[in-house]
Design brief:
Blueprint lengths: L1 E9 L2 H14 L3 E6 L6 H16 L8 H10 L4 H4 L7 E10 L3 H9 L14 H7 L4 H5 L5 H14 L2
Antiparallel strand pairs: 1-3, 2-3
Helix pairs in contact: 2-3, 2-8
Length: about 160
């Protein structure tokens, strides 16, 4: 798995996602893009990919498409329409793109041509937005030594149990 991140200007979300899919298809890779403000860190995305792959291997997936399964796990949501909230939107935004399987290095290189090369994962995250989206309260945060990313990973892992 690889993460490609940076900034992107999106005029048409569907065309942008088609371009990412084409790059993934050309390299036999699964590609999924996220609004990096919702990404708690690299471990968050790694956990989502691992759980989604495990669900596919066990024929226990929520979605028919592995990229959508990764999105659902990253969002900690079974409902695709709710998971899409952490996906990309029109406008200029920080982006994190997961590349899994196939020729990952080549696919990641192709994705670099689509985005500005500034690294954003970790720096672009919006802790307030993440806490709200994942329903992580201040009370919960103060009751544990776990950092925000660890709490998000718990939500990602719980999705497999909530089936």
């Amino acid at each position: 798995m690889r993460i490609v991140d940076g900034w992107v200007e999106i005029d048409d979300v569907e065309s942008f996602l088609d371009e990412l899919d084409a790059i993934g298809d050309n390299h036999g890779s699964v590609v999924q893009a996220f609004d990096a403000r919702y990404v708690a860190g690299d471990r968050h995305l790694t956990a989502a990919v691992e759980r989604a792959n495990r669900a596919f291997d066990r024929a226990d997936a929520i979605a028919d498409d592995r990229a959508i399964e990764i999105l659902c796990y990253a969002a900690g949501r079974r409902q695709i329409e709710r998971a899409i909230e952490i996906g990309v939107k029109p406008g200029r935004l920080p982006i994190a793109i997961v590349v899994d399987d196939g020729a990952e290095v080549d696919a990641a290189s192709g994705l670099r041509d689509v985005i500005d090369g500034d690294t954003v994962v970790g720096r672009a995250r919006d802790e307030e937005l993440i806490a709200e989206f994942f329903n992580i309260t201040e009370r919960e945060r103060s009751a544990t030594d776990a950092d925000l990313e660890t709490l998000v990973i718990e939500r990602v892992s719980l999705l497999a149990i909530d089936k």
